[in-house]
Here is the input.
Amino acid sequence: MGSVLATALVRAGHRVTVWNRTPERAASFAGVGAGVASSARDAVEASDVVVVCVTPASVNAVLELAAEAMEGKVLLNVSTRTPQHAASTARWAAKRGIAYLDGGILAVPSMIATAASTILVSGSRDVFDRAEPVVAAWGQANYVGAGPGDAAARDIALLSAMYCMFGGIWWAQAFGRAHDISDDEILGMVVPWLEAMLADLPNDSHDEVGSSVEMQADGFHLFLEASVDANVDPAVLAPIGDLLRRAVAAGHGKRGLDVMADLLRGDSDGDR
Ligand SMILES: NC(=O)c1ccc[n+]([C@@H]2O[C@H](COP(=O)([O-])OP(=O)(O)OC[C@H]3O[C@@H](n4cnc5c(N)ncnc54)[C@H](OP(=O)(O)O)[C@@H]3O)[C@@H](O)[C@H]2O)c1
Here is the structure.
């Protein structure tokens, strides 16, 4: 991802200096108009905005490589991390006089610099204004708040939603294949179906509804039976049935599916 971000910046006309732990992976940038630094510190010294895109576990170690050189500069981390990690790095940066932004990339490398790419960013608005031309080279720059963890919270929420929905789609594809239904047919139907159901999800009143949790919990065993019959692993389905039954046991049987978010927060009486 880091090399795609750097390439997009070069193409957008920015002056770019790259550094990568394994030098061979950065060497090719010399041919595309970017500087190639031999140390993280050299890359930082050559830059006003410092972008960090590394594995989540290595962010802190990479920052320590050039901490002193970052004083007075903008540091934009776009490595995926939790809101707590972002808050911790914001404290680390504040002690060193570094203007910190945290980002979440809602894209895979092939989507960078296309209309399909959104970059969530949080931190001081003034600092974001300084870094926006950099972020805009990668996709839609979406400033989401002053809190250091504001971008990461949305990033984690959206990625988690994606993984859980993809789990359901993978199951539907496997089940479809067992019944001679093509992936294309499944995928073509799943988006309009989810859009229709999502429009029905909010139910602020928590009043009795036509499609209650109780009804859904009662029928859920059918999906598990069909899964076993089709020899498709029910691993992604089973926890949903368990959650629905927990909601009924907690007294939410007559409510709509929006109560499930309260249940997941451990709010047993279902009040927001
Ligand atoms: N790829 C995606 O679709 C995508 C989408 C959104 C967000 N992201 C985020 O972008 C970040 C990078 O992902 P990626 O796909 O580029 O992963 P990647 O291809 O595995 O690259 C990881 C990078 O981290 C560096 N690195 C790892 N440990 C390091 C250490 N201890 N010290 C210095 N550098 C270290 C690697 O350097 P070496 O080359 O020396 O190993 C490499 O440049 C991650 O936080 C990921 O969650 C990725």
